[in-house]
Amino acid sequence: MFYEPAKGHGLPHDPSKAIVAPRPIGWISTVNKAGEVNLAPYSFFNAFSTRPFIVWFSSEGEKDSATFAEETGEFVANLVSRDLAEKMVRTAVDAPRGVPEFDYADLTMAPSRLVAPPRVAAAPAALECRVTEILRPKALDGTLTGAVVVAGEVVGVHIDDAFLKDGMFDIVKAGNVGRLGYMDYASVSEIFSMSRPRWGKTRT
Fold first, then answer.
1. Which residues in the chain belong to E strands, given as ranges?
2. Contact 129, 65 (CB under 8 A)
3. What's the burial of 176, exposed, middle or buried (CB within 10 Å: 0-12/13-18/19+)?
4. What letter does residue 109 receive in the DSSP assignment?
5. Bridge-partner residues for 133, per DSSP?
6. Rounded to whole angstroms, how far apart are CA atoms 79 and 26?
């Protein structure tokens, strides 16, 4: 089939998020100037630079995570492991501002080293970030989409030693969780390695 998104897909459910999948989940923790803490999962999340290490998350609307990050200039991206998936989903609740999702999902906060927002204590890894840029993307006709893209440079990295093996982060042990389409998720249970080709070298 072929469809133009502006004209609709004609399917029972929108396939867009299933096509662009799996997407890693950034479990974003933030705090506002009043000291209110927010924790929410974002599947519109990824890294786009290694030097410097920069990650981003996109909020569909002016939600607390984006608002707090813009207000204070900081956020923490926490990794969601398979054993934390159910608690991660609980933090997606539409709780009123001021209700800490950490408590609602029975999660423990841990202090960050270089930024104010706390991190998820049980997360296998967490990235402390300082905001570098906030974008509000436009559609083809120039109107604002309503999305708020928050980019941040990683200034500190926490890794639970239990997930380090031979000096590398053990993704399979953590079972990194990603969002698929619809209400589906996946976790990493198997990996394979491939080497990049080098020009001029004989293929084997």
1. 23-24, 26-31, 37-42, 45-50, 53-60, 74-79, 109-110, 119-120, 125-135, 147-159, 164-165, 168-169, 177-179, 185-187
2. no
3. buried
4. E
5. 151
6. 6
Taking the C-alpha atoms of residue 204 and residue 55, their distance in angstroms, rounded to an integer, is: 36
Structure tokens at 88: 């991660």
Over the stretch 53-108, which tens digit does the pLDDT of each residue have?
Answer: 999 999 998 899 999 999 999 999 999 999 999 999 999 998 887 788 999 999 99
Cα(23)–Cα(64) distance, integer angstroms: 21
Helices (H) and strands (E) in the chain, counts: 5, 14
Find out whether 174 and 180 touch, Cβ atoms under 8 Å: no
Q: What is the pTM of this model?
A: 0.92
Average pLDDT of the residues of the chain? 94
| Closest to 123 (Cα-Cα) out of 168, 88, 74, 151 | 88
User: What number of other Cβ atoms are within 10 A of residue 118's Cβ?
Assistant: 22
